[in-house]
Amino acid sequence: MTPSSPAPPARQRTTAGVWLRSAGSWIRSAPGTYIWLAALFVTTVIVHQMSPEFEEDFLRQRSTNIHELTQDPVRVLFASAFWIDGGHWIPYAFLYTVFHAPAERWLGTLRWLTVALLAHVLASLVSEGVLAWAIRHGHVPSSAANTLDVGVSYALAGVVAVLTYRIPPPWRYVYLFAVLVVYGVPLITGRSFTDLGHFTAVLIGLACHPLTRSRQGTKAAVAQ
Asked: Which of 18, 57, 80, 205 has the most beta carbons within 10 angstroms of its beta carbon?
């Protein structure tokens, strides 16, 4: 009598199914985050097919540098939010999941997007405005007007900052201190226009506190 074959590991299949359903549920709970991330994946693949010389020119035309902002500000402010300088998508997939997705689930898609857009647009304008002032007064060369400046890091910095209000005290102040250190130290030591843009985006995210008030009230009511 031959021994019967061992039964398939049903427990492992069940666990995998639970993980897949959980991942799908998480993605559906933050649709804006993952639609944006999917768009970044597509544009990153496109960039990887380009030669280095063509890639630089291509991205510069979608950059929020002074030259492009004076030509067509609306176009470049929109376009720059869908390209990643350097072509490394996986780190952004991690950061979007850790910061953007929780913020969207907490605030709702419209308020989360408002914070991200305000940080992206205003930080870009502030940093490039300061750079224009530096060029005008001879502190940096005029060629800096064409500096490549694309990516989603300003929007990310703003969302990272607004999540301060999601964390209850006293850990809120620990988180805020960490955010100010992460974005403040490069500004003090490097003093580049992108460092200024990131720190400005953090301040904008913190200034979005009014958008979080009803969410905080709802959280407190549920806790009671």
From this structure: 205
Q: Does a cis peptide bond (omega within 30 degrees of 0) precede residue 31?
A: no
DSSP 144: G
Name the amino acid, one letter, at 40: L
User: In the chain, how many domains are there?
Assistant: 1
What global pTM score does this model have?
0.84
pLDDT in tens, 19-48: 666 666 778 889 999 999 999 999 999 988
Tokens 């039964």, located at residue: 7
Per the CB < 8 A criterion, the answer to whether 83 and 120 are in contact is no
Q: Show the tokens assigned to 18.
A: 């639970």
Q: Is residue 186 part of a domain?
A: yes
pLDDT per residue over 50-104, tens digit each?
887 787 788 888 888 888 888 888 999 998 999 887 778 999 999 999 999 999 9
Tell me if 198 is assigned to some domain: yes
**Residue 166: domain span:** 29-223
Q: Give me the CATH number covering residue 190.
A: 1.20.1540.10
- Can you read off the two tokens belonging to residue 72? 């067509």
